[in-house]
Amino acid sequence: MLSPIRRIGILGAGKLGITLAQLALKAGYEVIIAGSTHPGKIALSIEVLTPGAVAASADEVASQADIIILALPLGKFKELPKQALGGKLVIDAMNHWWEIDGDREIIVGPHRSSSESVQEYLATSRLVKAFNHMGYHDLHDEHKPSMAEGRKAIAVAADNPEDVKAVSDVIDTLGFDPLYIGGLSEGRRLEPGTKAFGANVPADQLVRLITP
Predict the structure, then answer these.
(1) E-strand spans in the chain?
(2) How far apart are CA 80 and CA 11, in angstroms?
(3) Alpha-carbon distance 198 to 196, whole Å?
(4) Is the pLDDT of residue 3 over 90?
(5) What 3-state DSSP class applies to 154?
(6) For residue 128, which phi and psi values (nearest 5 degrees)?
(7) SS3 of 34-94
(8) Rg of the Cα trace of the chain?
(9) What does the alpha-carbon distance between residue 151 and residue 134 come to, in Å, rounded to a whole number?
(10) DSSP classification of residue 124
(11) How far apart are alpha carbons 185 and 188 in whole angstroms?
(12) pTM of the model
C-alpha cells in the first residue's frame, strides 16, 4: 500500500512548474521546487510566485518529496538525479520541443513514447505520464472542485495500477478529472502533434481525441 502524499516535489521552475506548484499549494500540499540554478537564485521568485513553497536543489526535491513532477525540458532528462529518484513515484509532464531539444529521435529514439525513454533512464523509479497535454495557462484557470459541471480532464498513462490510482488522486485534488488511457507507451497519444495535445476539455471529449 502506498503512503499518503503530503509533499509534492517539482523539478523545473518554469511556467508549468510554477503553475503546478500554485495548484498544489492551493490544494493543501507541501511543495518543494528546484530550478536549473542554485536554490538561492530562485528563492525570491518562489517566495513571490508560490508563497509557502520551498526552493531546494534537485537532489533535495528528489529525496524529500512523496511524489515528484518533472516539469523541465525533455532534453535535460538525463541530467535528473536518478539515484535520488530511485523508488520514487514520478510524474512525467515533459514534452519534446524541436526548438529546445533538437531532433526527437536523438532524444528519445524512434517508435516509442518519450516517457518510455525517461523510464528507461530512471529505471528504478515508478513513472507516470500526466499534466503534459494541457497548457499551463489552462491548468491555472480551469481547475474546479470535484463533480463540478464542465470540469476538465487530465490524461494518465502508466503501467502500475497503484501508481495510476495515486496520481489520479493528486489530479483530482488539484481540480481535474483523471482519465486513464493505458500503459506508459500510450503516452505518445498525448505528445505534441497529436489531437489530444493542447486539449482543455472534459473527459468524454478527451476520450474522443485520444481514441484512434
Answers:
(1) 7-11, 30-34, 54-55, 67-70, 89-92, 126-129, 153-157, 177-182
(2) 9
(3) 6
(4) no
(5) strand
(6) -130, 135
(7) ECCCCHHHHHHHHHHHCECEEECCHHHHHHHCCEEEECCCHHHHHHCCCCCCCCCEEEECC
(8) 16
(9) 13
(10) T
(11) 6
(12) 0.94
